[in-house]
Design brief:
With 373 residues, this protein is of the alpha/beta class. It contains eleven helices and 15 strands. The strands form four sheets. Strands 2-9-8-7-6-3-4-5 form an eight-stranded mixed sheet, sandwiched between helices. A three-stranded antiparallel sheet has the order 11-15-14. Helix 3 runs parallel beside helix 4, helix 3 packs across helix 7 and helix 10 crosses helix 11. The structure holds pyridoxal-5'-phosphate. The site of pyridoxal-5'-phosphate (PLP) has 13 residues, from helix 3.
Length: 373
């Protein structure tokens, strides 16, 4: 379409710098300083000590005591997820993952030869997990429960009672709880407490990075932290071996982790305000389109509306028709594991309010026409 001269508006990837949200200057300076200081060699495979200490101190300050020797600096949340799933799950093992899901979990499990077992999250309950459903899916082969809170693709945050129930469930069944907290700083009402802070002795492994809260996804800098439960001691050893195998994560960026967690974070206040404004605009505009409904997000920059599709149509057909007609590119819900006939799609709302208003006008006009057929 672009080759034919048409403009495409990319609302399909959660990539803040593409919309003008750049990392704070002191992070860039930390990377440049590290390069100038000759920090160009390998580091210890779990990461440089100041970065591991900064991550441990950050979780501890936020109510989840973690020791530095159970922290690994990784190439983003993504590498952390891959290291831990590889360490924890054998071929044939099962892992409970939310639906809609962030697709990396299912992809890594497929690579390992393990089985993702999807549990429902429900738009009728603000996209909260269906706890009875989660419970009913545990088998002797289940190794871990993945919780993404705040959530991509739904923008949900879970209330404390739900978070506690998920922790209880994992403990009761002897599962590791994999807490994907990459959006933890992006709750519109302020940072969301790490899940481990609700149960410091539980078997929780947390993942996060500089990608979202620090606006530097291209730097591929993140971390994982393994809780103090002795059930996870072997996981620390196995992740350590896998981390040795990949030598280390990019060293100059590890200095930015220190700068991020020990430095000024006022950029996050401004970013949260910008996100809330876009979330309100998005929710109002989408709910005003006949045949479209969406739950108001509470964090991050995603929303997952539903289009009441005519019988026989799929979410992907709708998304492709929208792209061809308007140049607006979103991701169909079945890309996140939803049934194609349910008509879900995910929108990234990082564009300016003015551009978003234009986009939702285009979507409204297109959808009225599409649903008339
Ligand atoms: C839920 C979730 N987990 C992990 C990631 C990967 O993040 P990173 O850039 O830290 O690897 C993303 C990126 O969008 C995400 O949405």
């Amino acid at each position: 379409m672009e080759a034919a001269g048409q403009t495409v508006r990319y609302l399909n990837v959660g990539n803040p710098p593409a919309f003008g949200f750049q990392p704070p200057a002191h992070l860039t300076e930390a990377v440049v300083r590290a390069l100038r200081d000759g920090q160009n060699g390998y580091s210890a495979s779990p990461g440089i000590a100041p970065a591991r200490d900064a991550v441990a101190a950050e979780y501890t300050r936020r109510g989840w005591p973690v020791s530095s020797n159970r922290v690994f600096i990784t190439a983003g949340t993504s590498e952390g997820i891959e290291l831990v799933l590889s360490a924890l799950v054998d071929p044939g093992g099962e892992v409970l993952v939310p639906t809609p899901t962030y697709p990396l979990y299912t992809a890594v499990l497929a690579k390992i030869g393990a089985r993702p077992v999807p549990y429902r999250t429900d738009p009728a309950r603000d996209w909260g997990p269906d706890l009875d459903h989660v419970n009913s899916l545990v088998t002797p082969a289940t190794r871990a429960l993945v919780v993404i809170d705040p959530n991509n693709p739904t923008g949900a945050t879970y209330p404390a009672v739900t978070r506690r129930a998920l922790l209880d469930l994992a403990e009761r069944h002897g599962l590791a709880l994999l807490a994907d907290e990459v959006y933890g700083d992006l709750g519109y009402d302020g940072p969301v407490a790490p899940l481990g802070s609700l149960a410091p002795n539980a078997a929780v492994i947390s993942f996060s990075s500089l990608s979202k809260g620090y606006l530097a996804p291209g730097w591929r800098a993140g971390w994982l932290a393994i809780g103090r439960s002795s059930r996870l001691d072997d996981v620390v050893g196995a992740v350590g071996k896998l981390a040795d195998g990949r030598l280390c994560s990019t060293v100059p960026m590890q200095y930015a982790v220190v700068a991020a967690l020990e430095g000024d974070r006022s950029h996050q206040d401004a970013f949260r305000v910008a996100l809330r404004e876009r979330a309100v605009l998005t929710t109002n505009a989408l709910n005003a389109i006949p045949g479209v409904s969406c739950v108001a997000p509470r964090a991050a920059f995603y929303v997952m509306p539903k289009v009441d599709l005519p019988p026989g149509k799929t979410d992907e057909e709708y998304v492709l028709a929208l792209l061809r007609a308007t140049g607006v590119l979103c991701v169909h819900g079945s890309g996140f594991g939803m049934p194609a006939a349910d008509g879900f799609l995910r929108i990234v709302f990082l564009a300016s309010p003015r551009e978003l208003t234009e986009i939702y006008e285009l979507m409204g006009a297109f959808t009225r026409e599409y649903l008339r057929v």
